[in-house]
Design goal:
The structure holds 2 protein chains of 2 kinds.
Chain A lengths: L9 E12 L2 E13 L4 E5 L6 H9 L6 E10 L2 E2 L6 H7 L4 E4 L3 H4 L6 H13 L3 H14 L5 H5 L8 H13 L5 E5 L7 H18 L2 E6 L2 H7 L2 E6 L2 E7 H6 L4 H9 L47 E2 L5 E2 L2 H8 L1
Parallel strand pairs in A: 3-8, 3-9, 6-7, 7-8
Antiparallel strand pairs in A: 1-2, 1-4, 4-5, 9-10, 10-12, 11-12
Helix pairs in contact in A: 4-5, 5-7, 7-8
Chain B lengths: L1 H16 L5 E15 L5 E15 L4 E5 L6 H8 L7 E6 L2 E2 L5 H7 L3 E4 L13 H11 L6 H14 L16 H13 L5 E5 L7 H18 L2 E6 L2 H7 L2 E6 L2 E7 H6 L4 H9 L5 H6 L30 H5 L5 E4 L2 E3 L5
Parallel strand pairs in B: 3-8, 3-9, 6-7, 7-8
Antiparallel strand pairs in B: 1-2, 1-4, 4-5, 9-10, 10-12, 11-12
Classes of the chains: A alpha/beta, B alpha/beta.
């Protein structure tokens, strides 16, 4: 994993995504870069509108009008996914080597087809299986995600299942072609806590057993703490801090990361007053100059008006903050 | 402002004087009609959303009501406010029976009990200015004749919830989620109620904003001696704001206890599973935590099992649990739970 000569499984470099709306150009992703290594789970955390979903939607090719990818590149196993010459490669990879699990399992499954039809479709399209082969494999997949009586389930429609069960089906579909990378966009946000615990346990178990890489997008730091090896914190269309999850939680460097960790209430700690971050996230139609967090930051100074990039800060930590970088070099 | 100060002292005095609960809910049942089933529509379907729920809320107190979706927590809150019909049981407010209060009584009562909604986007009319939204309760109750008359009052309310003074002239779309929730709170406070049902008031907000709203609610409580029924599914937030906490499962309260007891010595197996299911945002701690994975899902509310409703997911289930539903019984000072085996 520490071998730098090996190419990362996925590399997103300086990704710029803009949405052309009536109100103006929304700069949803303003130069996002991150890597995912083989067999690793990367958590991307951020609040709503921070651009965390947009970044992975670009990987899956799901940015459509009025959104446009206007800069940067995405490499999967060293090959560009954005290069128009590599269309064939892209079509082969998406859905097969890179699979996605969405937030709302009700709207992401097709209500008018049975579960069986929807799983076997993936298998027949990508792996060219026959109907019987696909059916058998679909049953194995449902078994893998701990759904009992898979034979009966295959003939059922999404409405006949609960939210947790539907999310298991989504995971089974994502696993159908033995992907190398699974992108899970808020996979448990729509679920109840006890069901969330079941799904997180399942994801962790599958990740270990199948050695896939996972990108987990969430706004819940607790979910990151449970599942992720690395974590990237996003704010206003940029990654502000990225590093080993244990280290980032233990010693956050960026003021926003610090604030986010302090603002997240914990079950195991009693404090009389919850800590908030004053102010609101900026409007991405006209983001502030330099550091987007500076209007809410209590350490902000003149330097913060200059734009800055993610800078390595020892170990495997990268931070984008003038104050932190100065402290680090001192 | 002096009037407000007077109001304040009189309210705190009330809070001290009254050891009578402000709200008393006893054996509350809410049953919804779910249409008919069968080819000829002969079978009536019913959803037993709330069953035998009892609790008290004292002046100046926050009762946290926690449960997963479909557990009946919102229905309970709405039943108290007279917004859903009660099938059985009683609700008392300030010692008065309001269980089957008529429309007029409910309207009069709404001066004392208000609701803060979950979704700050859906609960504010996008075509109304903030000043009109906040002044509406005053108009409805005939306290002011028109919005102009209420301007001073509204300005005070907006200041109270931490909104800029010019907010009144703007429309909801100009505000972020957190600010809209402040507008919702200002509207609820307009009639100077003693009791507020807050139905998941921070669930739709981002983490950094959530704390702002929770802190505001606590400040307002300290200032006006408000009582809250704080409905939520987020146990960590509830822990911060509540004095006592009730855990609901499939229409029943399974445990009701002082807040520290719920977290430090939970009794009911569902409470334990629920607590262990919430991940702690600290990787080493979270890895070390013992997790109870509670298999299966909540029962179908149309066909709940006989006996304890948690039986299908409970690791300690016995024949007694399958036959008879347990009642809430005392487990120590400030703690009650409904379970045969714990």
């Amino acid at each position: 994993m520490n071998d730098s000569r090996k190419t990362p499984l996925l590399e997103v470099r300086n990704l710029v995504v803009n949405f052309y709306t009536r109100g103006g150009v929304v700069q949803a992703s303003r130069g996002v870069s991150f890597q995912v290594e083989h067999g690793q789970t990367l958590g991307i955390v951020g609040e709503s509108g921070s651009g965390k979903s947009v970044a992975v939607q670009a990987v899956m090719g799901l940015i459509s009008n009025p959104g446009r990818i206007e800069g940067g590149d995405i490499f999967f196993m060293g090959q560009s996914l954005l290069d128009p010459a590599g269309r064939k490669f892209v079509r082969k990879v998406r859905g097969k080597d890179i699979a996605m699990i969405f937030q709302d399992p009700m709207t992401s499954l097709n209500p008018v087809f049975t579960i069986g039809t929807q799983i076997t479709e993936v298998l027949r399209h990508h792996l060219g299986m026959t109907r019987d082969q696909a059916r058998k494999r679909a049953m194995d997949l449902l078994d893998l995600v701990d759904i009992n009586a898979p034979e009966k389930r295959l003939t059922q429609y999404p409405y006949e299942m609960s939210g947790g069960m539907r999310q298991r089906v989504m995971i089974a579909m994502a696993l159908a072609c033995e992907p190398r990378l699974i992108i899970a966009d808020e996979p448990t946000t729509a679920l109840d806590v006890t069901i969330q615990a079941q799904i997180l346990e399942l994801l962790a178990d599958l990740q270990q057993r199948l050695q896939v890489s996972v990108i987990l997008i969430t706004h819940d730091l607790g979910v990151v703490a449970q599942l992720c090896h690395r974590v990237a914190v996003m704010y206003a269309g940029r990654i502000v801090e990225v590093g080993d999850a244990d280290q980032v939680f233990a010693s956050p460097v960026h003021p926003y990361t610090k604030g986010l960790i302090r603002a997240t209430p914990r079950l195991d700690v009693i404090t009389e007053r919850m800590v908030s971050i004053d102010g609101v996230p900026p409007d991405l139609i006209s983001p502030p100059r330099g550091c987007a967090f500076s209007p809410r930051c209590d350490q902000a100074k003149q330097d913060c008006l200059r734009s800055q990039t993610l800078t390595p800060l020892g170990d495997d930590r990268h931070v984008s903050c003038w104050c932190a970088i100065k402290e680090g070099t001192r | 402002m002096t009037g407000q100060a007077k109001e304040e002292t009189s309210r705190t005095a009330n809070a001290v004087a009254a050891d009578l609960p402000l709200v008393r809910v006893k054996d509350l049942d809410v049953i919804f009609d779910a249409g008919r089933a069968g080819f000829w529509g002969g079978k009536r379907l019913q959803v037993h959303a709330v069953e035998k729920v009892s609790f008290d809320i004292h002046p100046g107190e926050t009762l946290g009501l926690v449960g997963e979706s479909g557990s009946g927590k919102s229905t309970t809150g709405r039943a108290i406010l007279g917004r859903v019909p009660v099938s059985a049981g009683t609700i008392h407010f300030q010692g008065k029976d309001i269980t089957h209060a008529g429309k007029e009584t409910v309207r009069a009562l709404s001066r004392h009990m208000q609701l803060v909604f979950q979704d700050p986007y859906a609960s504010l009319n996008p075509r109304m200015k903030i000043i009109d939204i906040v002044a509406e309760p005053l108009l409805v109750h005939g306290i002011v004749k028109n919005t102009k008359e209420a301007a001073g009052e509204v300005a005070q309310l907006l200041e109270l919830v931490g909104l800029p003074p010019d907010a009144g002239a703007r429309y909801p779309h100009a505000f972020s989620g957190g600010q809209r929730q402040r507008v919702g709170i200002a509207r609820a406070l307009a009639l100077k109620p003693q009791f507020i049902v807050a139905d998941e008031p921070v669930s739709a907000l981002d983490v950094s904003i959530r704390a702002q709203v929770v802190n505001l609610m606590q400040d307002l409580q300290a200032r006006f001696g408000l009582a809250y029924l704080f409905i939520a599914h987020d146990l960590a937030v509830v822990r911060h704001i509540s004095h006592r906490i009730a855990i609901m499962y499939a229409g029943n309260i399974v445990e009701l206890a002082d807040r520290h007891l719920i977290y430090e010595s939970p009794v009911h197996p569902y409470t334990k599973a629920l607590l262990s299911a919430v991940p702690v945002p600290d990787p080493p701690v979270q890895r070390a935590r013992q997790r109870i994975i509670c298999p299966g899902e909540a029962p179908n509310p149309m066909h709940p099992p006989a006996g304890c409703r948690f039986q299908s997911r409970c690791p300690y289930v016995t024949q007694t649990c399958r036959d008879t539903a347990p009642d809430l019984t005392r487990r120590g000072p400030g703690q009650t739970a409904a379970c045969w085996n714990c």
